[in-house]
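Here is the promised in-class demo. Please do not try to memorize the tokens; focus on the logic of going from shape to residues.
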């Protein structure tokens, strides 16, 4: 079993088709077929159900796939680390983050990182926390900024809390304030026209759960939007929204008020594979993220604090 065989196996599994996988790998199909056949012979098991309509994984193939992805990721990590040490290239960083963080903290992180290390290749994956952890576990990311850690399996990831931030109620700065008090209750928010996120957002699940726990039914005027769209709709006066305090930085078109129920907060954490040593470039990115998170906490005031300081 060698890396070329594993790479061919992963591509066939991805496309479900030997011809498309061969094209992706710039191989002749007979060569790819021989690699798969040799791999099956080495392992003593068939990896694909072959049919005219395509190829699907057998039980043995499904068992091998996550292991093959991890082995390929480890091999690539070693190759890049050695290249960095030899001075052949500066490296690559594959960072994942949630949509909320991509329009706030990550923008600052990437700006600072690229200014200091312009030769390092950067890749960004934007998706929900659970998807990011799956990608991290599959070797597709080097590190990820997540807002939930429920999906972490013990020992799989090193998860470092960075920030704890409140969820706040935002409205248009051009409209009258939703309250004259320093805080607003969930019951009051439920009576205001609301713009709510797509069900794929962990944030949506958290706010829905809070309303259910309080036996409240919010007045929803628009449902299913992504973060940037939600903020723009609020700025235009379509309604209010419950959002992380972090996204308010540099948003003069929005006005925020804190919730009386302070239980609505979230922890932003940095997750990395526990069983893979970071390359030099990834370690620099880790330090950059930590520094920028600290700076964000200082700018945000009472609605955000460093996780270490807050416990």
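The designed amino acids, position by position:
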């Amino acid at each position: 079993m060698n890396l070329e065989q594993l790479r061919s196996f992963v591509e066939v599994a991805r496309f479900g088709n030997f011809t498309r996988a061969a094209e992706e790998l710039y191989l002749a199909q007979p060569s790819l077929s021989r690699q798969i056949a040799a791999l099956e012979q080495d392992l003593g098991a068939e990896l694909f159900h072959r049919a005219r309509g395509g190829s699907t994984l057998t039980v043995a193939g499904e068992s091998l796939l996550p292991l093959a992805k991890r082995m390929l990721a480890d091999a690539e990590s070693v190759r890049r680390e050695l290249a960095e040490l030899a001075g052949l290239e500066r490296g690559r960083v594959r960072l994942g983050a949630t949509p909320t963080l991509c329009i706030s903290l990550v923008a600052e992180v990437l700006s600072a990182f690229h200014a200091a290390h312009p030769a390092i290749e950067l890749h960004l994956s934007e998706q929900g926390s659970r998807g990011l952890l799956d990608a991290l576990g599959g070797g597709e990311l080097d590190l990820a900024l997540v807002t939930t850690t429920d999906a972490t399996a013990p020992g799989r990831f090193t998860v470092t809390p960075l920030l704890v931030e409140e969820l706040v109620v935002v409205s248009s700065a051009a409209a009258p304030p939703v309250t004259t008090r320093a805080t607003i209750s969930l019951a009051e928010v439920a009576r205001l026209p609301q713009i709510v996120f797509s069900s794929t957002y962990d944030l949506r699940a958290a706010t829905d759960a809070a309303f259910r726990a309080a036996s409240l039914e919010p007045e929803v005027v628009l449902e299913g939007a992504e973060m940037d769209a939600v903020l723009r709709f609020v700025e235009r006066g379509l309604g209010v929204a419950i959002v992380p305090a972090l996204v308010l930085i540099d948003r003069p078109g929005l006005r925020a008020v804190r919730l009386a129920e302070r239980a609505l907060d979230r922890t932003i954490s940095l997750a990395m594979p526990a069983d893979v040593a970071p390359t030099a470039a990834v370690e620099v990115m880790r330090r950059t993220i930590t520094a920028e998170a600290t700076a964000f906490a200082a700018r945000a005031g009472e609605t955000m604090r460093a996780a270490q300081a807050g416990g």
